[in-house]
Each structure stands twice: as C-alpha cells, then as structure tokens.
Design brief:
With 233 residues, this protein is mainly alpha-helical. 73% of the residues lie in helices and 2% in strands. Strand 1 and strand 2 form a beta hairpin.
Amino acid sequence: MSSEPPITVATAKSVRLGVLLAAVGGFLDAYTYVTRGGVFAGAQTGNVVLLGVDIAGGRWTEALAFVPPLTAFVLGVATAEFIALPEVAKIVRRPVRAVLVVEILVVLAVGFLPATVPDALVSVILAHVAGVQVTTFRVLVDSPFNTTMTTGNLRSMSMAAFHRVVDGDREEGTRARRFGAVIAGFLGGALLGAVAVELFGLRAIWVVAVMLIFALALFVFDERRPQSPPPKS
C-alpha cells in the first residue's frame, strides 16, 4: 500500500486496529455459522474440515454448501491484491481506508437481506469480505498475523511466550502480549456475534458495521493527532 501516508501505514499495523479487526473476524464467523447454514465466513480451515467430513459421510449436497464461501474467500484475496497494484493505487489513493468503507457498505446491505435470501449467497458475500480484510491487514506492528483466523496467531503467541520465558527476551514478551490481545479480540467478537444474533437475528450484522466505523475512525484520529517533532541532531 505504498500510496498510503506514513501515519496511515502505522495505524494499519497497530495493535488497536488488529484487535478490532480480529473481533470483526470472530463476529463474522459466529454470524454465518449460526444464521447461514453452519459455514464460516473467514475460518476457511473449518470449512475445509466440514467439507471433508460431509464428503466422507456421503452427504454431497451438504458438502457443496462449503464450496461457494471457499471460492469467494479466494476471490477476496485476489481483490485485495488487485487493489494493491501500483496502477490501481494511483486511482484509489487511500486503499486501506477504501477497503474499510467497502466492508461497512457491504455488511450494512447484508443486514437488509431477508431470511428468504439463500444462505449460500450471504456466506459468499461475507467470505469475500473476509478474504479482502485478511489480505489487506496482515501485519501486527512488525509480525505477520491474521484477522479472520486464530491458529497462526496462537502459534505466534506461544512461540513468543516461550522465548520470553526461556531466553528472557523482553521484546518477545511484548510480542506475546500483542498476539494475546488479538486472540482475545477474536474470541470476544465471536461471543458478541453469538449474543447479538440471539438479540437481533439477521440484523446483528450491523454491529460489525459499527465496529468497522470505529476502525475507520482510528485512521482519522491518528491523522489529526499532533505529531511529535523529529529529534534534533
């Protein structure tokens, strides 16, 4: 995202945003699993496992339900990579924020869809959103991370915690806390998603729009915050 100013790049890699987007990822998975046919929007590992289980059981119709979100997720990754191309970045001047705006508009629209809309269509839309998000936001300060799945984050936290304890590396301790916060955010988002569905039904997806608006506000806040003058040489 070379077209983004330095302050925006710093915000995109911040722990605050990482935790918030992880919460969005957890919420989306809970939402689609509970309301839209037991598939996951972002946790494609779960979809692949359930696909294999259904195939093994000869439940071909049920297995086919997992193919559209898997495909949509792949296309979401491709969409994010397309937005990052230098030629496109010349047109989309603030691609990171553009992704958040599109996410907000999409989840708002999904909340208006009635229950009669096929589950496959909704899961495809949200899986595509998850693919775009996970590809656009993939660095936590200085480490790769994931906003829609937690296995890799759990591994990174465990490795960092190990080196903090065994080697006494304080920097690894800080890294472990960062990943711990992201994992907690994902879990919190999943819990919030399950509760919101109980309270609001299909309209619960609008909670994600509110969360993403807060994420977008972080960029605006950081841009307007007075910056410290550079140190004198």
